[in-house]
Amino acid sequence: MGGQRIPRTARLLLFGRNHCEIDLKGSFYELVRRLGLLFMPDLVPLPTIDELRTQLYRDLYVQEVEAICPHTVKQLPLRIINSSIDTTYRHLRSIVDGSPGASLSAILHQIWSQTTALTPNCSTASDQRSVLTIMTVPFDCWNTSKH
After folding, report:
1. pLDDT digit string, tens, across residues 1-40
2. How far apart are CA 31 and CA 142, in angstroms?
3. Is residue 51 part of a domain?
4. Looking at the whole model, is its pTM more than 0.70?
5. How far apart are CA 54 and CA 29, in angstroms?
6. Rounded to an integer, what distance in angstroms lies between the CA atom of residue 67 and that of residue 2?
7. Distances (CA, A) of 67 to 28, 37, 57, 62
8. How many CB atoms lie within 10 A of CB 76?
9. Structural domain contains residue 16
10. At what angle do helices 27-39 and 102-118 cross, to 10 degrees?
11. Which range marks the domain in which residue 86 is found?
12. Is 145 a member of any domain?
C-alpha cells in the first residue's frame, strides 16, 4: 500500500509532525497537456486538470459512475493515458451502462489521441503507451527538428 492511500491522520502519526506532502494533482495528465501545447501548437489545447475535472463532475453519466465508484474523476485521465479510450469506456460501462456526453467524450478522445501522438516520439517499443515512457526519456528527444 502506498502512503497516499493511508488516511492523512495515520500518515501524520506514522511520519511525524515534520512530514511534508506535495500534491502532484493530475501530474501525468498535465504532462501530456503541456507537451501538447509545446509540440502540437496547432491543435486545440486540452483543458487544465481543474477544468477537466469540473467538466467530468458536471457530466450526468460520470456522476452516476462516481456515485458507485468514488475517485473515478481523479483516475479517468490517467486510465486513458495508460491504457486506451476503448479500454476506459469498457471499464466505465462495466460500472454503469452508457457513455459520457458528446463534448466530454470529444475531450476524452483528444486526450487519447494526443497521448498516442506524443508517445512514439520517445518510445522505441511501439506497443508501449504509458506516459511514464515519456518521463524516462531525455527531454531533447522531443526536439522535432532532429526527426
Report:
1. 456 667 878 877 887 777 666 556 678 888 889 888 888 8
2. 13
3. yes
4. no
5. 15
6. 24
7. 24, 33, 11, 8
8. 24
9. no
10. 70
11. 25-140
12. no
Comparing 19-33, 41-55, 73-87, which segment has the lowest mean pLDDT? 19-33
The tens digit of pLDDT for each residue in 91-137 reads 999 999 999 999 999 999 999 999 888 876 555 444 444 444 444 44
Domain count of the fold of the chain? 1
DSSP secondary structure string, the chain?
A: --GGGS-HHHHHHHH-TT------TTHHHHHHHHHHHHH-TTSPPPPPHHHHHHHHHH-HHHHHHHHHSTTHHHHHHHHHHHS-HHHHHHHHHHHSSS---HHHHHHHHHHHHHHHHHGGGT-SSTT---HHHHHHS-GGGG-GGG-
In total, the chain counts a number of residues equal to: 147
